[in-house]
Amino acid sequence: MITLIYQLLREDEKFIIESAKKLNIELNLLSADKLILDPRNFQFKDKLILNRCLSQFIGDQITHFFETFNIKVINSLEVNHLCSNKFITSLFLIKNNIPTVPFLVFFHEEMIDKVSQILENYPLVLKPIYGSWGRLLAKINDRDAFEGIIEHKKNLSSPYHNIFYTTKFIEKPNRDIRITIIGKKIVSCVYRESFHWISNTARGGKIKICNLDKELENICQNLIEKIPEGIYGIDVFEYQNGYLVNELNNTVEFKNIQKVTGVNISDEIINFCLEKINND
Amino acid sequence: MFNANCPICGSQINFSTLPEENELLNCGNCNNRLVTKSVIGNEIILAEAPNIEEDWGE
What we know:
The complex is a heterodimer of chains A (280) and B (58). Chain A has 280 residues and is α+β, with helices and mostly antiparallel strands. Chain A has three domains: 2-75, Rossmann fold; 102-168, ATP-grasp fold, A domain (Dna Ligase, domain 1); 172-277, 2-Layer Sandwich (D-amino Acid Aminotransferase, Chain A, domain 1), CATH 3.30.470. Helices cover 34% and strands 26% of the residues of chain A. In chain A, helix 3 (77-84) crosses helix 4. Chain A is globular. Chain B is mainly β and 58 residues long. Chain B has one domain (2-48): Rubrerythrin, domain 2 (Single Sheet), CATH 2.20.28.160. Chain B is built from no helices and five strands. Chain B has strands spanning 2-5, 12-15, 24-26, 33-40, 43-48. In chain B, a hairpin with a 2-residue loop joins strand 4 and strand 5 (43-48). Chain B is globular, with a radius of gyration of 12 Å. The N and C termini of chain B lie far apart (34 Å). Chains A and B meet through helix 2 of A and loops of B.
């Protein structure tokens, strides 16, 4: 019924396998290493693909391929496109009046003084437009650091490192908020606590339960109305008695959230897959 | 019960059921991150888990 495509089976995927067994749903595992995407010999027997590839680029090729043959994939290419490029995510948030962190993109080191002026001085945060788990993020405290990091980035091999996606640094209360949205539903809401300015759990952030208040719930509902249906991890900062949505993530990791909150996110994922199959 | 040896420290790792290919696990002895490279019949071959790539993640 459902094919789970993966590169590495992590605890998250093992939770999904357990949920499928428990709910008596046929879930076939397919390692991306064994795939040949050959359109002339296309054969596929299941009704839906749950794409859990670790690599964004490999995952996108797989999703694109199967969607070409009208096979439903979760998350869809539309969701992946919205989440994987941080500049595209930020533009989407601005366009839809979702409160977000002030950001901009520039391409040349000559612009750094103008950039720091527009973003109201240092500190700033420089992020690769693609990437996850807090990798290659730089907090820039002054002009010297900005100049040095830009020079280093210009010497990295991938062309996207020459796209300087820069945001204002948001002073947070040693935590951020991660909200999991599946379909139209807010499934969980947790704090990720850390004394480091990067609070990702991949970087050691600790999970604690967070109760959604009315304001945050309204932001989420507004977001749910605007985003294509899928499985999302929404990162939110608390700022000046309000909230700023920082990032939208696809291929959501949830093992720690599931353990701490007791919310069975893997059940929710399987149920969402069934809902998509039945909506055919 | 199935078992395989850690490719790094050589200690025996036990499995109650056959693992899937490319399943992540930790060696209980050296704590290195491993992956099941292949499962053929009851034979499990383990390898060191791959390094994180630039586009990995959520």
